[in-house]
glutathione transferase
Amino acid sequence: MGLELVSFAICPFVQRAVIALKEKRVDFDITYIDLDNPPDWFKEISPFGKVPLLRIGDEVLFESAIINEYLDEVYPPALHPENPLERAKHRGWIEFGSNLLFDQLKAMMAKDEDSFQQQCEVLGGSFARLDPVISDGPYFMGERFSLLDTAYAPFFMRFEILKKHHEALEDLMPTRLSRWGQALLDRDSVKTSVVDDFEQRFVAFGKSKGSFILAKA
Ligand SMILES: N[C@@H](CCC(=O)N[C@@H](CS)C(=O)NCC(=O)O)C(=O)O
């Protein structure tokens, strides 16, 4: 049955599902909507009014982590660890990654230097938590790329862009975390997981919402 992903072009949560689909080489259609002016059909089928949605025939899945677990159960190769305890730990860190994405958005949307710097401290605290639990590389659990990696790649992609706009971000990330991020950004499924003009759109979006660090972009 055909798969349709409902997306907003710069959404990191949709990007997680795109990466998983590409890793699994599954064909899918993608429908972009404008979240500032969502169509009625979307409001009817999205319980939280959020993307991503995955439409499978008449069925609709919502929430990126749930969508990716479904994809992982149905389409090989399985990316989640086989061991239930490891899988549960990964789910916890995927949730941590979702919080990190929201903190990154807050940093990007900060309206002035003070609130931006405060958000940098929050990000720095999360990096200090995350850094000791990642493997020596290249990926979170070592040689094997996992579902958890799909959840963090969108964060690293946005961080690389934001880093160009404020020096406070340049040295914020510990070396090991940066190394993991680079390995993810080098992966084909990640490179091809966004629209061609992603960076321009992402920056324009932040600017239009009054972002302090993107004001001069
Ligand atoms: N927990 C959700 C978060 C999804 C999310 O926040 N999506 C944003 C776009 S990146 C959205 O649809 N926002 C619309 C809104 O909040 O009204 C997931 O993991 O799928």
Notes: Strands lie at 3-7, 29-32, 53-56, 59-62.
